[in-house]
Each structure stands twice: as structure tokens, then as C-alpha cells.
Amino acid sequence: MSAHRGTVWVIVVNWNNASDTLRCLASLEKAGVPGMRVLLVDNASTDGSVERVAERFAGVEILARDVNDGFGGGCNAGYERARSGGAEYLVFLNNDTVVDEGFLEPLLEPLRRGEDIGMTVPRIYFMEQSDRLWYAGGEVNLFTGRFAHRGIRQRDADRFASGGETQYATGCCMAMRAADFGESGGFDSRFSLYGEDVDLSLRFRARGKRILYVPESKVWHRVSASVGGELHFRKLWKKQRAHFRLLLKYRARSGVVLSLILAPVRLLYGAAAVTLFRLRAGTEPYGERGA
After folding, report:
1. Nearest 5°: CA angle at 79, between 75 and 82?
2. Residue 198 forms part of a structural domain
3. Which of 108, 213, 131, 204 lies closest to 170 in space, CA to CA?
4. Which of 11, 75, 84, 149 is most solvent-facing, going by the fewest CB within 10 Å?
5. Residues 107, 8 contacting (CB under 8 angstroms)
6. Does the residue 114 lie in any domain?
7. Residue 102 belongs to a domain with what CATH number?
8. What pLDDT digit, counting tens, does each position of 16-55 carry?
9. pTM beyond 0.85, yes or no
10. pLDDT digits 0-9 by tens, 163-189
């Protein structure tokens, strides 16, 4: 079964990160199938990204914008273009990723199979340590204010090879029907960066749509390349701000209180886990290394 059964638009948002974007698009070129179109949404980059992509990838459509309203805003703009182009399926993909050549079909097959399936999401690895997981499902608990990736930093194993329903899809790579995305209202661009994927997932689930983790689809992620690394202050600040915005949006009062109390512990634990992970990998604990 091939992707020509419905037009698929892969939407990649870029802001001043030409090198990662070129690598991502090169991997998509190898993974191309009939009916797949790639749209680069550029959020007012000043590093020559648009020109470099246009020169290297003639088959990639470019939506050059004069505003940077974040990941969610860029994705929403991409959706509008894809919708006008007759898209049936959408894949939102971070620009700091590399996809497996066969990543697309496993994501689409469940969406074709049942209307109750709202999103599909792949198994995602760290690019620096390609056998270590970054995402193998998402866990959400509004009562405690905890949002987490299943399997993060763990070595891949048989227990992560079984697909099934999960609580949220990561915006790093998520597939869905264009109609479902439109009916959901799209990404809430007030989140700017982080949290918009959990929010969209919760709204899908509230409409009776299930989210499936599909381990047969594989992606590698150069984590937090757009904000300078996992322990960069900008990332930590944006994640905390999005965390509380999400809890407040869903009136999760207990989650707000517990998050305020536990925030220092969670930050210290997270920083220690990231640092240990990078030291074991032989990489710098406070920055990103090009893959």
C-alpha cells in the first residue's frame, strides 16, 4: 500500500537553522513516495535559509513568511497552504530531524484504517546516540502536572517495539488527517514553543480521537537545536512557561500547585539526567554537537 491513496503534505518549519533543515530535507528526499509533497515554512529567517533550500531542493515548496510567530504559528500557516493544495494527510516534522526511508507509510496506515484514530507518532531516537530513545509514547497527568516521554534516554529494547494508544503525540513528528487538524482549530500559537503538541493532543482526545504510537516508523532528533541545547536557559524557561500555561488553560489547579512545589526538584533531576546522559555519550553536557 502506498501513499498515493491520499495526498500527504510534510510540513517543516524553519527559523534561522539552514544546516539542520537541509539535512532534514535530504532525508525526506530519500523517503519520498507518490503523493507526498514537502512544504518548508520559513518564519522570517535571516540566515539565507530560503535561498539555500531553493537552490538545493527544487521539489520543495517554500512558504516564506515575514513574521516569526513560533512553531505553532508556522505549522498553522503551513496547514492553510496544504489545505488549499488538497492535502488529505499532514505530517508536522521538526527541522532538526532525520527520517528513516520507510517512516511515512506506517504513520499513514492507521489513519486510513479507522476514523477514531486521530494522530500517529513514530519512535524517535536521539541523533547523537542513535540507539537511545527520545520518545516512545507520551504520558500526561494534569492532576499532578506531569508530562513525560516514555523511554526517554533509555536504550532501545523489545518493550518499546510494541505500538498502541498513547496520551500525547510530540510535535517533533506527528501525522493526522488535514480535516481533523482543521476541525480541532490547529495549534494554539500562544504557546510559541513547547506545550502546543500536548494541548493539541488533549483537544483531539476530547473529540474522541485516539493517538497511536507507531514504532515501525523511525525518526532521529537533534534535540533542542533551535534553542541551544537541552540545558540552555532559554529552553528551560520556555518549557516552564508552557507547562504552566497548559495547566492554567485546562484549569488543573492541583497540577499548578504541585508543579510550583516540585519545579526545583524536577529541574534538578532533569538537569542531572541530561548531564549524565551526555557524559556517558562522550558529548558536552551544556551544548549541542552537530550530527
Report:
1. 135
2. yes
3. 213
4. 84
5. no
6. yes
7. 3.90.550.10
8. 999 999 999 999 999 988 889 999 999 999 999 999 999 9
9. yes
10. 999 999 999 999 999 999 999 999 998
